[in-house]
Every structure is written in structure tokens, then in C-alpha cells.
Write a sequence for this structure.
């Protein structure tokens, strides 16, 4: 009996779904190109480089970079040691300005330049939050600055909108 030939299906019987791997939230950079003020991913957290020191290459190894970093959301100090030629991840950090329209039950109601509303940011429990609340209570137009990276967002500043 001759072997049967495999028949090709007329159409694909499966669907391909896309998922966000988070890869677009970072870009690779060489450790030796990092400077004070650069952003780096340390233990999965977006951080700003506070200081960097590079050791000379030894007899059996390459130069190493010692980075002292501060988490941009928590303010926690972190350290990273990496070979100077190695590739590390730099998080894409964006800053956006929003117009404050309302404060409802501890959440800010913000409007961006395109007129889109954003209601998912909590009023901070610090001096910035107090400043925002006072400006809102005084009836002043307030511009709120938000930093976002790696899917996290945080209010970092506010100022009174200047009349144009």
C-alpha cells in the first residue's frame, strides 16, 4: 500500500492574537554611554542615574560601571553593577501636561491638549497634592505635570496656567 500524501488545508484554522510584551516601553543602550540624569531599568523599576563610576579593566576582566540610581516613582535608592560593554534597558519616560478640571473623591479629572479626559490619577498625599487642592479650591486654572514609564503614572508638579 502506498503512503498517503498530506493534504493542505484550504484556510488557516487558528487566529493570531497580539499581546503587549512591554518591549516597546524600553530601548537598549550600552552601559558605558550612561550619564548622570539618564534613565535605566534596575530590577524592573524605572530609575534615574544619580552617579556613575567606571573601574579600569583588570587582568582577567573588562571595565565595570557602578551605577547609583533613584526610582522615579518611589524615590528609593538602587545600585547596579554592569560591564561597560554590556547592554542595559533604558525605560521610555514621558512627561505630559494636563489641565485640571475637577477633583472627585481623591481622583483628579484631567484634560489633555487634544481634549481627551483622564480620570485615573489619584491626588498625591504630599505637598504637591496640597498645592493642587489649594489652587483648585481658589478657582485657579491649574496645569498638572504627569510622568509616565513602564505602565505607571505619577503627578510630579503643578502650576497656575498663565492667561494668554
Amino acid at each position: 500500500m502506498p503512503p498517503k500524501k498530506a493534504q493542505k488545508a484550504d484556510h488557516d484554522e487558528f487566529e493570531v492574537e497580539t499581546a503587549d510584551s512591554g518591549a516597546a516601553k524600553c530601548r537598549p543602550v550600552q552601559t558605558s554611554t550612561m550619564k548622570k540624569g539618564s534613565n535605566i531599568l534596575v530590577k524592573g523599576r524605572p530609575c534615574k542615574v544619580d552617579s556613575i563610576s567606571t573601574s579600569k579593566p583588570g587582568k582577567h576582566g573588562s571595565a565595570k560601571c557602578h551605577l547609583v540610581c533613584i526610582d522615579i516613582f518611589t524615590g528609593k535608592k538602587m545600585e547596579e553593577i554592569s560591564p561597560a560593554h554590556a547592554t542595559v534597558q533604558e525605560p521610555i519616560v514621558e512627561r505630559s501636561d494636563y489641565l485640571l478640571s475637577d477633583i472627585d473623591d481623591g481622583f483628579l479629572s484631567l484634560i489633555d491638549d487634544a481634549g481627551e479626559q483622564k480620570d485615573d490619577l489619584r491626588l498625591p498625599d504630599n505637598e504637591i497634592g496640597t498645592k493642587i487642592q489649594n489652587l483648585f479650591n481658589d478657582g485657579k486654572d491649574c496645569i498638572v505635570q504627569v510622568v509616565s514609564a513602564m505602565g505607571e503614572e505619577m503627578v510630579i508638579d503643578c502650576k497656575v496656567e498663565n492667561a494668554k
Q: What stands out?
A: The longest strand covers residues 94-104.
